[in-house]
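Researcher: Please predict.
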Amino acid sequence: MSFGAIFLSFPISVLFFLQALIRLSSSSPIKSDEYREFIVDPGKNLILPCIVNDPLTAIWMKEGHITKPNWIRQENGSLLIVNITMNDAGNYTCSTVNGTASLPGNIASSSLDYKTSNVRVRTPPEAVSFFAVRASTVIAVLIWEYPPKKLIANSVRSFTADFRRVPEEDIEVDADGNIIEMTETEWEQIDPPNISPNIRQLEVYHLIPNNSYEFRIWANNHLGPGEKTSVTATTKSQWQEKDLIRLILVDVRNFDTRAWIVAVAITMGILIILTIATSAVLFRECHSSPDLRIETIEIKQIII
């Protein structure tokens, strides 16, 4: 049997399969296997590169989606994303397509997917992770926390804080019995307006005792202010003379005289013991020192 007869005896399906393998092996593979990450601001344009031998065989996909309205495929296979929004963030894959759809036997076109790019869209900073206020009579201390990783990821440049008095809940009425609408107090910015990103504590002065205040703080980056976090705190009452007298009188009424007598007795006993001990030490030193006795005798002779 000749070679031509053997070749013709092969099944037609095997020939189609070999043809598909030849086309698959001759497709344009992606040259670059680097994983790239792109960080871009909202509203900007971004070009994602896809280097292949034949740019016409390259397609782009983003997490299962092939095309979007703001996608523009370039002649060199790269992808232009216009007017980026938060919806454009995610993983992008550049694929090469094998055009075998025309082959019989239901051999569909195949692709070699490879994740090449990750797009991150910058956003205003997130809210602080912790915020508390410790208020005294006229001073309040603001304390907050911000994770270091988010501080870098959000490119935080500064913090800003402000406060205002909280209006009383009591409803005011005029002479005719009509309810007076209570207007909210304006926010007062706390100095400095741009707090260093390394600072985690700030003091506020000149507050009014026994008043409620609302405090807010937020982070800033080049995109603007982030999410605001608010806390309400009430300053302590300022002590008046009558309040001090009232507290003293309460202590006087509750005072136990027996405890006072015991304390005085113990104190007097300690003083008596110290006096006796000191006298004994001085007396012993005077009688045990010969020089002192000689000086005493000489003084007596001089006097005589």
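Model: The first strand starts at residue 36 and ends at 40.
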